[in-house]
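batch job 7 of whatever, protein = Helix-turn-helix domain-containing protein
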Amino acid sequence: MAKDRALGIRIRELRRRQGLTQRALCEALELKASTLSQYESGQRTPDDAIKARIADFFGVSLDYLLGRDEFIQPALEKGEPFPVTVMDDSLKNLGVVRFSRLQVQEGAPVEDGQLALVAFKDGRTLVRRLERKNGWVLLIAENGAYETLMVRPRDVEILGRVTHALLPLGREKGKKSEH
């Protein structure tokens, strides 16, 4: 039971770090709310396939998820590509919807008009089309429901350039897992 509790704590911690409700994570992973609640409380253990989906969704190793590793992600070589999960629909007009996964080339130069992964000083990250104008960085959403953000270059760090979309998590929409 102690191992199950550690796993549940990790799942809850990762979910909260991403700012997700249980409902949103259930939707992304196609789980029942009661099942996720049982995972997080340690009352139930996900099967190996679900563990792998959870780790893939959050971009962490299974060792981290299971509490055998304290590092969220393995150390990457400078410039190594890594996946990110889009947590909103700000890129909807490009076909990138909530829970889509994108590949980011760390440290790659980002030209005006390209998609970039950007980090703010408060720890928030987002993917937006980037443009530089008159000493400002414009972070442009591809959905009219989101405003363009205008920030000073010193207030953000460009982490990398989006190179392509990754395949979905391997689940067909509409199929619920009982695990």
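notes: The chain has two domains: 2-65, 81-165.
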